[in-house]
Design brief:
CATH architecture of the largest domain: 2-Layer Sandwich
Structural class: alpha/beta
Keywords: Exonuclease, Hydrolase, Nuclease
Organism: Nonomuraea cavernae
CATH topology of the largest domain: Nucleotidyltransferase, domain 5
CATH superfamily of the largest domain: Ribonuclease H-like superfamily/Ribonuclease H
Radius of gyration: 25 Å
Helix content: 40-55%
GO biological process, one term: nucleobase-containing compound metabolic process
Protein name: 3'-5' exonuclease
Strand content: 5-15%
Order of helices and strands: EEHEEEHEHEHHEHHHHHHHHHHHHHHH
Number of helices: 20
GO molecular function: 3'-5' exonuclease activity; nucleic acid binding; nucleotide binding
Length: about 400
């Protein structure tokens, strides 16, 4: 019988909860302290997703040996470029870096070298890679995670929230040290380095051309006039949300937008009878919503949106069997190869090779299938060197086998 591991609750930061850095003088002292510190720097950021418009940081937490922990208010200290320069030569340790990097870049903090403990956990085959679970599984410590979805734009921040925030970076470097050793032992350290570099090198996300098409439930909308209502309501909501600094869903839920598109209300009374418009914020802007619906109703046929926008990639995989049966067979074979490699190396299939790369390779394969041609195609699709080395040969073999059997 396996002996259960004792888990120790992590209740208080070493040195207590530091005061929030909220002015230029305090920030200058923090910069000096972290410049004099040694080793990697643990970094985390708290946002107010679901409460405020956008994804700006409302608290930044850092910890470094010799410097201790700092909690910085980026609202009163919106420029962390001096701190960024002070730790420019240090490895920055983050958990789920792709979530925090955009808001850190906005305030002048740009890591040059990085270790992502979540991504390391995925490469190592950990089934659950949330920070709390990783800390408990790897270090035997339990983090309190009750404030992860809090409104971090709140001022002043409650002491319990600050304690939670400080604890998020308390043992992040220790977690990094253990995971790095495991990566090295498993032969995956270079893989991880390539992945970390790829995350750092990913350019900021450009806004989608038609972001309103991501409205939840839009699949229920069957005609282009109703799609125009979705578009006009979405754009009106976005303007109000941006001006009010509120998350769009708090101004008007997606369900209300879709319901209005389906019902096509012509009067304010008809609009109020839609249950999804009963929220306080929705009622406050009834005239705006009705104006948006009326504007969509008045559009000429040439001004209506198309049912869908043409993409630059292959169609959804569930349509391949009808549109191109040969491509569907290639996709099935390639997915089987990636799944087998994922099992062998104990990691998720999407980390072995990006699903989009698999789809694009099999929808438009090289004219001549070989290890070299498949490798070149994968590199062009953004696969990392370790991924190409791992997958090019077995993928080429599987695709060539289909051609040889005459299944294509």
């Amino acid at each position: 019988m396996t002996e259960e591991r004792t888990v120790v609750p992590l209740l208080e930061p070493r040195g207590g909860i530091p005061p929030v850095v909220a002015d230029a003088a305090s920030l200058a002292r923090t910069v000096d302290a972290f410049a004099a510190g040694t080793g990697p720097v643990a970094v985390d950021a708290e946002r107010a997703s679901g409460y405020r418009y956008g994804n700006r940081a409302y608290l930044v937490q850092l910890r470094r040996a010799g410097a201790g922990t700092a909690l910085i208010d980026p609202i009163t200290c919106p420029d962390l470029s001096a701190l960024d320069q002070a730790v420019a030569d240090a490895e920055i340790v983050l958990h789920a870096a792709s979530q925090d990097l955009p808001c850190l870049l906005e305030i002048g903090f740009r890591p040059r070298a990085m270790f992502d403990t979540e991504l390391a956990g995925r490469l190592l085959g950990y089934e659950r890679v949330g920070l709390g679970t990783m800390v408990e599984t790897v270090l035997g410590l339990r983090l309190e995670k009750g404030h992860s979805a809090a409104d971090w734009s709140t001022r002043p921040l409650p002491e319990a929230w600050l304690r939670y925030a400080a604890l998020d970076v308390e043992v992040l470097v220790e977690l990094r040290d253990v995971l790095r050793a495991e990566l090295e032992e498993s032969g995956k350290l270079e893989w991880a380095r390539e992945e970390f570099a790829a995350v750092l090198g990913t350019p900021p996300t450009t806004p989608r051309s038609d972001p309103w098409r991501r409205t939840s439930g839009i699949h229920k909308v069957r005609n282009v006039r109703a799609l125009a209502i979705v578009r006009e309501l979405w754009m009106m909501r976005d303007r109000i949300a941006r001006e009010s600094d509120l998350a769009p869903g708090r101004v008007l839920p997606d369900s209300a937008i879709v319901a209005a598109a389906l019902d096509v209300p012509r009067t304010k009374k008809a609009l109020t009878e839609i249950s999804a418009f009963t929220g306080r914020s929705a009622r406050r802007h009834m005239s705006d919503w009705l104006s948006a619906v009326s504007r969509a109703r008045a559009l000429s046929d040439g001004e209506l949106p198309q049912p869908s926008t043409p993409g630059d990639g292959p169609p959804p995989a569930n349509r391949w069997a009808d549109r191109d049966p040969a491509a569907a067979k290639r996709l099935s074979a390639a997915r089987a190869v990636v799944a087998a490699l994922a099992d062998e190396h104990r990691m998720p299939t999407e980390n072995v090779l990006q699903p989009d790369a698999v789809r694009r390779l099999t929808w438009e394969p090289p004219e001549e299938i070989s290890d070299e041609s498949v490798a070149e195609r994968l590199r062009g699709l953004g696969a990392r060197a370790w991924q190409v080395s791992l997958t090019a040969h077995p993928l080429a073999k599987a695709l060539a086998r289909l051609e040889t059997k005459g299944d294509l």
